[in-house]
Amino acid sequence: MRILVERYQDRLVAVVVGMVRNHDDALEVVQETYIKAFRNLDGFRGQSSFYTWIYRIAVNQAIDLKRRESRRVTVEFDEVLPPGGVDEWSQSSVGGNDTFSRVRNRELVAKVYEAMESLTPNHRAVIILREVDGLSYEEISDAVDCSLGTVMSRLHYARKALQRRLEEIIGS
After folding, report:
1. How far apart (Å, rounded) are the C-alpha atoms in residues 172 and 155?
2. Between the CA of residue 106 and those of 16, 52, 94, what are the distances in Å?
3. Domain presence at residue 141
4. What is the CATH number of the domain that holds 59?
């Protein structure tokens, strides 16, 4: 099990952070994912890769957490950023070393976070799995346990919703 944890830990955390918007919650979700996977290892039939099977568990755990959170009080924006904050994420993800680039990137990342928050958990999951983690449509279908057509539909509507929300935020 240790080898599996080491192999998938960073990728799972990245996807789950994208869904739950909180690094500590993401770590907890990933831990719960491994526990659930270990308990249900006999249920893994090999019809999909282990990677997509464990991602399906992680995505479902993240969606469950978001549902539970929707019944709780919301938190401040600063509490949902990656551990190093927007500046660290934007520097490593978008690039740029000068002050102007860092400020511009920080603002862009904050706007993307805001737009992502407007998506449903299912739409956010498929966007993250496709655009951040680079999964194929088939792998996403396995990971979120729905048909290929549903994945394509969710991606289409998620992209359109994200585009509309970003246009509202940016003022295009």
Report:
1. 22
2. 21, 32, 9
3. yes
4. 1.20.140.160
Structure-block tokens of residue 125: 């999951």
- The answer to whether residue 52 is domain-embedded is yes
The pTM score is 0.58
User: Do the domain assignments include residue 8?
Assistant: yes
Instruction: Specify the number of domains making up the chain.
Output: 1
Q: Of 139, 96, 133, which is closest to residue 18 (Cα–Cα)?
A: 133
CB neighbours of 59 closer than 8 A, spacing ≥ 6?
15, 19, 125, 129, 143, 144
Give residue 25's domain range: 2-80+118-170
Q: Each residue of 91-117: pLDDT tens digit?
A: 444 444 567 777 777 777 778 878 888
Give the Cα separation of 119 and 66 in Å (integer): 12
